[in-house]
Structure formats: structure tokens, C-alpha cells
Amino acid sequence: MTIAVASGKGGTGKTTVAVSLALSLEGSVVLMDCDVEAPNSHIFLHPIIAGEENVYISVPRIDESKCNGCGECSEICQFNAIVVPKNKPLLFLELCHGCGGCAMVCPKGAISEEKRKIGVVEEGWGMGIHSIHGSLSVGEPISPPIIKKIKQKQNTGETVIIDSPPGTTCPAVESVRGSDYAILVAEPTPFGLNDLILSVEMVKKLAIPCGVVLNRWDDERTIIEDYCLNEGIPIFLKIPEDRKIAEAYSRGVALIDVIPELTTAFRELIGRIKKELSSQTGKVEPSCTNLL
Questions:
Q1: pLDDT category of residue 162 using cuts at 50, 70 and 90
Q2: Distance of alpha carbon 34 from its chain centroid, rounded?
């Protein structure tokens, strides 16, 4: 089973929930930190790194002696990484997505490909968890190839928890894609509702069932709860607004170490997801656990 933890914005508590889920589960578990621009799950797991792999993309290299300035390469590039002003090709490699289209359409064979490193994936084990995280190199804008590399490293029989990047753009979509279930972390604010709606639309497009964990809850009914009730989306947990949780997080201490009874709550959460997936009904009872 693969569960992606996502949200419409950063700072809502995705890593808090993802790490707590991984530590609460029994059996073989892998936590994949796909927020490659700012990975931080390893701060809580303290893994001993056993392997490291560089990630590359293929970028064009132009032999100007063969180029006739036809502009075919510029026309096929959807990211404006290559233009041909005055019949002279000009490359913007930072914009290149490594699709290889320019080399394929060049009628003179003037374009070859070379590899450029864009980041690294590290793998290890800590606190009984198989930990995999990636880091995008400074200045590089393209993160999906690193996310794909991370997701290729799952071992057979592991339960996968994915700590997704924030938002609903390409990195988030690539992280969540192919998951069995998505847990969407939300804050009880108007901005939190707006971001949750975007996340729900994303997972619906990917045909992935979802439920919500409400973070920084203050013991009052919220607009998030009203929205989820209207949409038939279950709220699994309500994590309270508590200074000691924030202080522990800043020290790299997991949520379930601050409130140990949450271990049972997170296990029950997984149990409800398994029940939904096995029944294939597309519904979960809309009850939730309050953690105050």
C-alpha cells in the first residue's frame, strides 16, 4: 500500500503526519521524502545513509558546424529552452526538461545529448524505517526526475509513506501519482480551505481517494469540517494547536514522541484506509479522532 501525504501549501504539517504514520506502522515501512527542494523527514528519523545516487537529465549539445538554422528544434521545444534568432541556435539549459525532442527533429543531426546532474538521492535506515530522500541541486528548477528516482527504490513488501512537496504543481502531482490513497493535511483557516480545495481537485484528477488530517485545531467547528462534510471527505484526525508540539518539531522530535497515545490513533487511521480500499466503496465513515 502506498499512501501520499499532501497539502495545498507548505507548512501545514505534512512531514509531521508522514513521519508519525511511518513510526506508528508495524512491519516493513519506507518513508519517501519527495519534497526534494527542502527535504526534512530524515531530521526526525536520523537514518544511517547506506547509499547515494546522483540524478541526471539529458540536455542538448549543438554542433554549430552542422546546424543550418532551420528552427525545427525551437518549434518542438515547449519550454523555450532553445531558440534560433538570426539562424543561430541559443540554449537556455536551465529551462530544459530533457525530453530529447530537439535531437529527434534536427534534420542535420546537429544536436546530440549530454547529461547534467540536477540532484542526488540518499537512502538509509533509521528508527526501524527505510528512509529515502532526494535533494535538488541549488539553482536547478526541474525536480520530477529526482522524485521518479526516489519512487523507483521501493522494496517488495514495504508499506510506502510519501511526504509530498507542497502545492498542486508538477512535483506534487509526480509524488502523489500512482498512490493508493492520499492524506491531505489542512489548517482550519480560510487560506487553509482554499489550499485544501486545490488539493482535492488534484487527487480527483488522478483518481486517488482521499481523507483529511486537520492540523492546529482549536476545539471549535471549522470551515474545513463544513467543506469536508459537504464533499463527503472523511476527517481522520484533529491535531490540536499546542506549543509543545511546535517546540518538539523545532528540535527534530516526532509528534508521537510528544503525545505517545497518537500512535494508536495513527494505526487506526491506517486501518480505516485499508478498510476503504478493500471494500472499494469509495466511502469512509466521516467520524474522526480528536487529539485534545
A1: very high
A2: 4
- 11: Cβ contacts below 8 Å, ≥ 6 apart: 166
Q: Right CATH number for 2-46+127-290 from 3.40.50.300, 3.10.450.10, 3.10.180.10, 3.50.30.10?
A: 3.40.50.300
Strand pairing report for 90-91 and 210-217: unpaired
Does pLDDT of 117 surpass 90? Answer: yes
Tell me which H or E stretch contains 120.
strand 111-126
DSSP-based three-state secondary structure for 127: coil
Please give the pLDDT value at position 281: 52
Residue in 281, 292, 267 with CA at minimum distance from that of residue 3: 267
Mean pLDDT of 108-128: 95
**Domain 58-117: top CATH class:** alpha beta
Question: How many other C-beta atoms are found inside a 10 Å radius of the C-beta of residue 246?
Answer: 12
Q: What is the mean pLDDT of the chain?
A: 91
**What letter represents residue 66's amino acid?**
K
What nine digits make up the cell of 56? 541526471
> DSSP label at 238?
E
The domain spans of the chain are 2-46+127-290, 58-117
- How far apart, in whole angstroms, are the C-alpha atoms of residue 43 and residue 167? 22
Is the model's pLDDT at 222 over the cut of 50?
A: yes
State the alpha helices, DSSP H only, in the chain: 14-24, 42-45, 72-76, 101-105, 144-151, 170-176, 190-205, 223-231, 243-250, 255-258, 262-279
Burial of 171 (0-12, 13-18, 19+ CB in 10 A): buried
The letter for the amino acid at 188 is P
Count, residues in the chain: 292
